[in-house]
Amino acid sequence: MKKEGLKKELKNYERNVTIILVILTVISLVIDFLAYTGMLYNDGMLYNVEGIRNVINSGWFMTLIWVDNIAIYIANLFYFAGVLDSKRDMIVKVAFAIFSILSTILINLQIVNLIADAFGMF
Predict the structure, then answer these.
(1) Which of 122, 100, 86 has its CA nearest to residue 32?
(2) Rounded to an integer, what distance in angstroms lies between the CA atom of residue 85 and that of residue 64?
(3) Using CA atoms, how far apart are residues 85 and 90, in angstroms rounded to an integer?
């Protein structure tokens, strides 16, 4: 009887952490879309991106970036703990966790900088 309750709690824990991680990843992808749109169309001659630039440079947006990135890293720690206990669909869950980490703007900027350094762009 006690073992069934433990399995139910583990399933609820895993489901709740997965939902939180999905929501944080979606927020991170929206942040990425806004940031990359602002960077790509920064010319100003062809497109009016003043609104996006104002949003990206605002204090609340920078706070949202940091809170989202830190929350993704913390949620991934709990997610990995649940994945190691579940043993079911482990490869898919680990792949999602890695995608979630790679979707953060901090990691994206590091990847862009590595590629730019490799080709001598900066």
Answers:
(1) 100
(2) 31
(3) 10
* Structure letter (DSSP) for residue 122: -
pLDDT tens-digit series, residues 91-119 = 888 899 999 999 998 898 888 889 988 98
- 16's tokens: 């709740």
Instruction: Let me know: does 28 contact 72? Beta carbons within 8 Å.
Output: yes
Q: What was the pLDDT predicted at 23? A: 96
Rounded distance between C-alpha atoms, residue 66 and residue 64, angstroms: 6
Question: What's the one-letter identity of residue 94?
Answer: V
Q: How many CB atoms within 10 Å of residue 11?
A: 13
In the numeric block, the tokens 């927020």 are attached to: 27
Q: If you compute the radius of gyration of the chain from its CA atoms, what whole number of angstroms results?
A: 19
